[in-house]
Amino acid sequence: MGTKEKISEEVLLKEEVLAQNEIVLFNDDVNTFDHVIETLIYACEHTAEQAEQCALLVHYKGKCTVKTGFFDDLKPRCTLLLEAGLSAEIV
């Protein structure tokens, strides 16, 4: 009978954890769908379809994550949303 050798290699992976944040947009009774959609296209660089889907989710679910990324990228985008009269925060 033959002898089987098992060769084990220990692989060490250095994994860098990068903190991702989200902009969450909240529903309100003030802004129109068109205003929300136009603002998402401008502030978050959404396509028209993405912006419309987010607007619908916000309307029916009460909130929606509209952008994910690093805080330094999200901060000015969230500021644009707030300046446009939308309710948003970075989490």
UniProtKB/TrEMBL annotation:
GO terms for molecular function: peptidase activity. Pfam families: ClpS (PF02617). SUPFAM superfamilies: ClpS-like (SSF54736). Keywords: Hydrolase, Protease. GO terms for biological process: protein catabolic process; proteolysis. Residues 22-83 form the Adaptor protein ClpS core domain. It comes from the Bacteria. This is ATP-dependent Clp protease adaptor protein ClpS. It comes from Algibacter mikhailovii.
